[in-house]
Amino acid sequence: MSVRVGIGVDAHALAAGVPLVLGGVELDHARGLAGHSDGDVLAHALIDALLGAAGLGDIGSLFPSGDERFRGVSSLELLRSAYAQVSDAGWRLVNADCVLVGEEPRIAPHREEMRRRLAGAIGEGEVNVRATTTDGLGFTGRREGLAAQAVALVERR
Fold first, then answer.
1. How far is 39 from 37, CA to CA, in rounded Å?
2. At what angle do helices 41-54 and 111-122 cross, to 10 degrees?
3. What would the 3-class secondary structure string for the chain be?
4. Neighbours of 68 (CB within 10 A)
5. 26-85: per-residue pLDDT in tens?
């Protein structure tokens, strides 16, 4: 097959005293995402979508949360590393679509920078970033955390 699609999903709780990083951009917000790395749900969902499309497992198999080497690391670095494996396996990103799920923060002022940083970490293909709410439903609606979904289309090199 010359093209494949992968889907990625990630979620983290919001916590006080932690920086909020989304799409590689640190936002001014009262709480950030608790995670072993920087908790960037957009980057994590994109990593899983890329790995899934290439048939290379998932983010946890490459970057286990119990491995201290990844504590506090930038998720853009994880994305670069994961995409290098996708590329080495003979795949190239065509496009990806990433969706943040949460009531806050509003990402419109940062959307282009997020898109640029995620795409820059990959180095090829197109990356889109957008957001939605759950109209107050679930953990994202109660502002307990944020989630993200991503889909990636890859083609054989």
1. 5
2. 40
3. CCEEEEEEEEEEEEEECCCEEECCEEECCCEEECCCCCCCHHHHHHHHHHHHHHCCCCHHHHCCCCCHHHCCCCHHHHHHHHHHHHHHCCEEEEEEEEEEECCCCCCHHHHHHHHHHHHHHHCCCEEEEEEECCCCCHHHHCCCEEEEEEEEEEEEC
4. 8
5. 999 999 999 989 999 999 999 999 999 999 999 999 999 888 999 999 999 999 999 999
Closest CA to 35 of 78, 2, 6, 5: 78
Dihedral, 115, 117, 122, 127 alpha carbons, nearest 10: 0
Burial (CB < 10 A; 0-12, 13-18, 19+), residue 155, is middle
